Amino acid sequence: MMFAGAMILALILDGAIGWPDRLYQKIGHPVTWIGRVIAGFDRRLNAPRFSDTERLLFGAVTVTCVVFIVGAVTSVILYLLPDGSGGMVLMGVLMWPLIAMRSLHEHVAAVADALSAGTLAEARAAVSKIVGRDPDQLGAAGISRAALETLAENTSDGVVAPVFWGVCFGLPGLAIYKAINTLDSMIGHRNARYEQFGKVAARLDDFVNLIPARLTGLLFACMTLHAAGSLKIMWRDAGQHRSPNAGWPEAAMAGALGVRLSGPRVYGDRRVEEPWVNTGAPDPSATDIRRGLELYRRTMLFCLVLLIVLAAVG
Predict the structure, then answer these.
(1) In this structure, are residues 259 and 282 in contact, taking their beta carbons and an 8 Å threshold?
(2) 158: which DSSP letter?
(3) I need a surface site. Which of 111, 177, 256, 312 has the fewest CB within 10 A?
(4) Per residue in 165-196, is it b (16+ CB within 10 Å) or e — as a string?
(5) Which domain range does residue 262 map to?
(6) Greatest CA separation found in the chain?
């Protein structure tokens, strides 16, 4: 009950004010603190002079050390929190910056606003902040797909998964999840530098997102008037995605909105041929991004209601 109650407060705080820029400028953000630790390990242990086997081992050491540090610090904090409602409130405040519900909405809405205004250059600039593919290669349809894919995937990574692990294991569970997710974002890349060093981080991130990704897809389907179609597309197409997890929320959203997602994309000078999700459906537009945001808001509200029920039952 304490963990669920704290998570309710964290969601409310994030939804109401996010993480204010003034606060970020003064103290930064917990994810950036974790990122500095990861970057330190990366500089020291991921040198070209090391063999692939050594890089794989050092990557595993990096993951172990970062997870241990974050888990140890947050476990001590949890131990020091007072019992009762006071401790629950303090935990909720500490959980607050580890939820990305409001910022995700703001970044995706900015893409929709730019597309609606007909300013393709501004839309490309907005979408470049949330995707890794080359924005200069994207037309209006590609920008819309990228925005909706990011919205779907990050609903899982940025909200549902943190809530899930926070409810299960409190502040340490939430913080460790964010550490793993940050490790994957920083070193879990399939390129010459990180193929071996980031392999353990990438696999661990896949593991901790197995349940939340599928839960997110189910939540999307439940919050649409086209639940049966959304579930059908999710079940049919999720496994075709390059990621073992991202396909579930993306396919559910594609089915809910009646649009196609994924497909070929360009990263730098490399074109990647990906299968379509909900093939045969039309490309999305700025209007569909807004529909996706509406679905996102309903899903977040439903999550909050579920937490309230869980806390009450507990």
Answers:
(1) yes
(2) I
(3) 312
(4) bbbebbbbbbbbbbbbbbbbbbbbbeeeebeb
(5) 2-313
(6) 56
